[in-house]
Amino acid sequence: MSIREDQNRFRDIVRGRIKENFKKYVTHGEMIGKRENDFVKIPVPSIDIPRFKYGPKQQGGVGQGQGKPGDAMNGEPQEGSGEAGNQPGQHQIEVGVTMEELAAILGEELELPDIKPKGRPRQDAIKTKYSGLAPVGPEGLRHFKSSYKRALKRYISSGVYTPENPVIVPIRSDFRYRSFKQVVQPQANAVVIYMMDVSGSMGEEQKEIVRLESFWINTWLKKHYKGLETRFIIHDATAKEVDEKTFFSTSESGGTLISSAFKLAKDIIEAHYPPDQWNIYPFHFSDGDNWSGEDTRLCMRLLHEFFLPNVNQFGYGQVESKYGSGQFAKDLEREFPDDERLVISKIENRDKILNSIKDFLGKGR
Question: Of 142, 202, 252, 260, which has the most beta carbons under 10 Å away?
C-alpha cells in the first residue's frame, strides 16, 4: 500500500471520528481558538498511532528483561507517588482539518443544500498560481533551495567539493526561479453582517452560543463564496461596528434599541456592498427584548423596505436568557408569517445550536 493510500485511509478514519463526535465539536468552542489560516486543529480521541519495533522476533530489546516495578531505567530505584489508577487513559491527538472538509462534514450531518447565489453577475478573480521552476525569472522569485542543490551537484560531479571546505558558490546556470501563471476564477462576492445585542441581559453563555453559531455559519458560506467578507455590529441603545474579538467580549448596560443596529447595517451595505453585485447575509442575535413598540415597528419597516428586497436572507437568532422576554421573535412571526427571506431561530441552549444552524442554512438561499 502506498503512502498516499495510507494517508487517505487515515483521513477517512479521522473523518469518521469527527462525525461520531460532531455535536460535541459544534457545542464546544475549543477548536475555534485553534484556527490557522484555512485549517483548524481538532482533538480527536481514540486513534491508536502505529509504532515501529526494530530487530528480529524473539530477540530481547528495550522494555524486555527481568526488570521489576519501580526500577529506574538506569537501574537506580526510585520512589513513586500516588495510587495506581484502574481506568484506561484517553488518547487524543490534534489533527489539522481544512475548513472545506469541515464544511463538507457539516453539510452531510445536517443535510444542507448547496447555496445558489442570487442572480447577479459573477466577478472574475485573477489568481496567481505557482506551477514549477524555471531557469530564468525575477530575482525576487529565486528558489534558494533548488539553486543550491544544483550548485552542490555540479561541485560533486566535477570533483571539486571537499567536506573539509564545503563552500558552494552558485553560478548563473544553477539558478532556478519559481514559475507562475495567472488563472481566472469566477467568484461570487458575499458579505455576512453579524449584529448582536450586548446589553446586560445577554450574558457570557448567550454570547458563546452566538460565537459558535457564527463560526459554523461562516464555515458553510466560505464553501460557496471564496471571497467572503465579515462585518460585526454591537448595540444596546446605540450601535457601532467593531472587530471580531470586541464583538464577542463586550458587555454593556442600559436599554436596547434594535433599530440602531439595523440602521448601521443598512448604512454599511449602501456604502460598500451594492445589492446588484453582492450576496448579502445579515444575522441579528438577541434575547428578544426591545425598548419600545415604536422601535420594533421601525425595525419591521426597515425589513420590509430595505433588507428583504436586497439580501439573500435575513437571519434572526433569539438566544434564551432568564432576563429576556423573547418578544421580538413573536413580533417578527406575526409581521412575516410566510416570508422565506426571513429566518427566525430560537436557541434555547447549546444543545440547540445544530438545530439553529440548520434553520439558517437549510433553505440554500
Answer: 202
* End residue of a domain, out of 152, 168, 184: 184
Task: Note whether residue 319 is domain-resident.
Answer: yes
CA 5, distance to chain mean position in Å, is 27
**Cβ pair 93, 49 in contact under 8 A:** yes
User: pLDDT digit string (tens) for 120-149?
Assistant: 545 555 667 777 888 887 887 888 888 888
Q: Is 149 within the bounds of a domain?
A: yes
Give every CB contact of residue 174 below 8 A, 6+ residues apart in sequence: 147, 148, 150, 151, 154
Domain range holding 332?
Answer: 188-361
Query: Are 193 and 139 in the same domain?
Result: no
Dist CA 279 CA 187 (whole Å)? 11
* Statement to judge: residues 288 and 144 lie in one domain: no
Q: What pTM, to 2 d.p., does this model score? A: 0.67
Structurally, the chain folds into a number of domains equal to 3
